[in-house]
């Protein structure tokens, strides 16, 4: 695989922060993104590329598998497992974002009803916030439907 070290480094930092991944898991995920042909990377390749122990690679692969960030498969003529990034992960991630945002809107509406204020400024701010969330939710839903 051909990898740009600068882009790889940026991806490791970004995905480590965005997904709260340990460094090796972020490296594995970033590495798999460069597998444009989706041939898959086997366990031994990760050990070689990252000079990491078998247990470290194994536990980080299991973490990524459990988070649905990557998937694995076996080739018919080989016993090895190959790992690729989960093509459905972006859709899964966006659906989780929608769910969290909808939940937050529900909680905020309950809070608004509980507060039962007539303060126009407070109501205006709430409505702006509520409208923004609903527009974002709608936009993300449209994107998910297109994926």
Tell me what the structure shows.
- The two termini are 26 Å apart.
- Helix 1 crosses helix 2, helix 2 crosses helix 4 and helix 5 runs antiparallel to helix 6.
- By secondary structure, the protein is mainly alpha-helical.
- It has six helices and three strands; from the N terminus they run H-H-E-H-H-E-E-H-H.
- Strands 1-3-2 form a three-stranded antiparallel β-sheet.
Brief descriptors of the model:
147 residues; mainly alpha; Arc Repressor Mutant, subunit A; 3-stranded antiparallel β-sheet; 68% helix
Contiguous helical run count: 6
* CATH fold descriptor of the largest domain: Arc Repressor Mutant, subunit A
User: Which band does the percent of strand residues land in?
Assistant: 5-15%
Helix proportion: 55-70%
What would you say the CATH architecture of the largest domain is? Orthogonal Bundle
Main sheet? 3 strands, antiparallel
Q: In total, how many domains does the architecture comprise?
A: 2
C-alpha Rg (nearest Å) = 21 Å
User: What do we call the CATH homologous superfamily of the largest domain?
Assistant: Winged helix-like DNA-binding domain superfamily/Winged helix DNA-binding domain
The global form is elongated
The assigned structural class equals mainly alpha
Q: What is the H/E string?
A: HHEHHEEHH
Spatial strand arrangement across the major sheet: 1-3-2
Overall pLDDT: 94
Q: Regarding CATH, which class of the largest domain? A: Mainly Alpha
List how many beta strands DSSP finds.
Answer: 3
Low-confidence stretches: none
